[in-house]
Amino acid sequence: MPVLETKGASSAQGFGLTTPVQQLNYIEDVFSTWLYTGTGAVQTITNGIDLAGKGGLVWTKVRSVSDSHNLQDTARGATLKLSTDLVNGQLTQANSLTSFSSNGYSLGSDTNAQVNGNTKTYVSWTFREQPKFFDIVTYTGDGANRTITHNLGSVPGCIIVKRTDTSGNWQVYHRSLANTQYMVLNSTAAVATGATRWNSTTPTSTVFSVGTDATVNASGGTYVAYIFAHDAGGFGNAGTDNVISCGSFTTDGSGIATVTLGYEPQWVLSKKTNGISDWIIVDSMRGNPTPYPQIANQQILRANTSGAEGATYGYPQPTATGFITTSLDLSSTYIYIAIRRGPMKTPTVGTSVFGLNARTGTGANATVTGGQTDDAVLIKNRGGTDTSVLSTRLTGTGLLYPYGTEAESAAPPDILQANPWDVMNGVKVGTTSSLTNASANTFINYLFRRAPGFFDVVCYTGTGVVRTVNHNLGVAPELIIVKCRSEPFQWPVYSSSLGATDFVSLDMSSATAANSQIWNNTQPTANVFTTGVNAVLNGIGRTYVAYLFATVAGVSKVGSYTGTAATLTVNCGFTTGARFVLIKRTDSTGDWYVWDSARGITAGNDPYWRLNALAAEVTTTDWVDTAASGFELSNSAGNLANVVGGTYIFLAIA
Question: If you write DSSP's letter for every residue of 489-515 in order, what string do you get?
């Protein structure tokens, strides 16, 4: 009989059971970008990160005005702050960040307004201590070459050291540099050489080395080290996914570089090594849309300055597998730290990834909320003959119109606000437009969160030849909707129920058509979908966006059914019914009908509207009723949704 490792008399092994199930780790448990507005009074930030039990760092920067960065961590104590733009030692601020909790942290009245000034806007980046992601070490210097023990559980990719008892520069070790080189976080300077920082010694999975320089190891000096992993695995359902990478890239003669990480990043810190430049921070919450120059508008902060947030273009912008740069310094080398986008967990309830509300326009700037952090919004004026509008976090201020073939356009301020996605929940709509927020008009809003197995958004550039497009859905998509952003084209739609030869168009009522140049007769996989050579989804040099959906137990259902002209229950595997239903007839002409619970899926009349039409909603029909397992089609739905022998595809969300 094999000997089992024991963990105590009360453990599972103590009763002769098998080894416990491995604890799974996900990026959303260890990292958060949080946007908030200061109040000047006590407030709580609930970002879901366990700092009290696990330890970590909160890095805060005011966005709307110039003021210093604030770094406060559990190793030194909540009220002790450092600033990456200053050489100062740590200072005590009793009314800034006051305490850490199991799901975030608390802010005081903040008399200096660096973390909680009334009406000022802020971002905080929270890094939780976790092997193969991030670690914090404090130590006292001895003035001699030595090693410092850490608990990262892997070889560090980047180490940032700051003396805390007195002034001193922020010293940066990065794996892309030689172990005799260092950079300074509070400086724009290029890489420097000096053996007294890291003692010319590469760190290991258990220790890093410091030399004799006073910025890292003066006798009696006190220090903190922030340690970042590199491609160490340890995350996801298999425990092998990378969530943080520390690397380098070199731009070409046009300032362009393509970096492959194997995932889409949500946060990137970068710095040029061979010349003067700032330390640039971009993240997807504040605004870092995928490249499309006439629309994209990056919001950047600089770790080495106190400056307010600024809008620019060309720094690392996300792709499905990494990031690209488009207009950095020519033929220059940069180092970076990149963190994976979340969530990584498959959702278990629909309300965590899909929100909807029916509202009345205000005629003034407003935020439309969905109940969760959102990545896409579809808005329709219920009473007007206006097209619906579609916007995503990944495309920034870009707008698409499902009714027609128009190219993406930059949203005017009356439709969406200047940086519409820089809120934790929802999207910011504008003022007087009848498309989104005209006073006294009624609207229905659908808000979607990207999540494994449920929904993903991918932007790509066409090649004009058969190719695959990477995605991060994590499963084979069952519904794919594609739109050319740069030119007017139709909206080709893939459905697993129709197969990879046929397609329908979101902007049309036409029946299914066969065309091998659309999906190249190739079924999508858990990692890629295939495009043919047709310009509607793969014209050379044209830019595209794809929306991918799949079935998640109890959350969403992508499927098909055959009409009966009698009452028909469509079982989606739900327990409390569908809140959203999209149906399209495929064997003959038929519109794209939309029902939802906010406007009413009841035993009486059920309002519907059509994605491919300009018409207002129709409120006088009773075609879709409630069913706990999904939805029910009435015998009066006719050829539009339930004709005998008619075939239909649908998307339902619980």
Answer: ---EEEETTT-SSEEEETT-----EE-
Q: Let me know: does 542 contact 535? Beta carbons within 8 Å.
A: yes
Statement to judge: residues 121 and 144 lie in one domain: no
DSSP 8-class letter at 608: B
Question: Could you list the residue range(s) of the whole structural domain that residue 165 is in?
Answer: 134-228
CB of 593 closer than 8 Å to CB of 582: yes
The answer to whether residue 1 scores a pLDDT higher than 60 is no
C-alpha span between 358 and 597 (Å, rounded) = 10
Nearest to residue 249, comparing CAs of 265, 233, 238, 235?
265
Pair 121, 155 in one domain: no
Give the contacts of 648 (CB within 8 A, at least 6 positions apart).
560, 561, 562, 563, 583, 584, 585, 586, 590, 641
Q: DSSP states of 14-61 as a string?
A: GGT-PPPPPPP--HHHHEEEEEEE--SS-EEEE-S--HHHH-EEEEEE
Residues pairing with 445 in the sheet: 357, 379
184-188, 477-481, 621-625, 628-632, range with the lowest pLDDT: 621-625
pLDDT of 8 higher than 90: no
Which one of 448, 471, 500 terminates a domain?
448
- Helix H, strand E, coil C: the string for 434-488 is CCCCCCCCEEEEEEECCECCCEEEEEEECCCCCEEEECCCCCCCCEEEEEECCCC
Query: Is residue 439 situated within a structural domain?
Result: yes
Question: 448, 474, 504 — which closes off a domain?
Answer: 448
Find all residues with CB under 8 Å of 253, minimum gap 6, and list them.
Answer: 330, 331
139, 223: one domain: yes
Is residue 122 located within the same domain as residue 153?
no
Vertex 608 angle, CA 604 and 611, to 5°: 165
**Is residue 507 a contact partner of residue 592, using CB atoms and an 8 Å limit?**
no
pLDDT confidence of residue 112: 83
Per-residue DSSP letters for 213-246? -HHHH-TT-EEEEEEE--S---BSTTS-B--EEE
Taking alpha carbons only, the member of 650, 627, 625 closest to residue 575 is: 627
Mean pLDDT of 81-91: 98
Distance CA 190, CA 306 (A): 20
Whole-angstrom CA distances from 464 to 348, 514, 520, 522 are 39, 19, 13, 17
357, 360, 407 from 443: Cα distances, Å: 8, 6, 23
Is residue 13 domain-resident? Answer: no
User: Are 113 and 154 contained in the same domain?
Assistant: no
CA–CA dist 216, 439 (Å, integer): 60
pLDDT at 3: 31
**What mean pLDDT comes out for the span 322-341?**
96
What is the pTM assigned to this prediction?
A: 0.95
Give a yes or no: residue 625 inside a domain.
yes
Same domain, 423 and 496: no
Q: Are residues 323 and 361 in the same domain?
A: no
Q: How many angstroms separate the first and last alpha carbons of the chain?
A: 49
Nearest to 120 by CA among 32, 40, 6: 40
How many structural domains does the chain have?
A: 6
423 and 503 housed in the same domain? no
Is the Cβ–Cβ distance between 268 and 332 less than 8 Å?
no
User: 380 in a domain, yes or no?
Assistant: yes
Q: Which helix (H) or strand (E) holds 535?
A: helix 535-538
Q: What are 459's strand-pairing partners?
A: 545
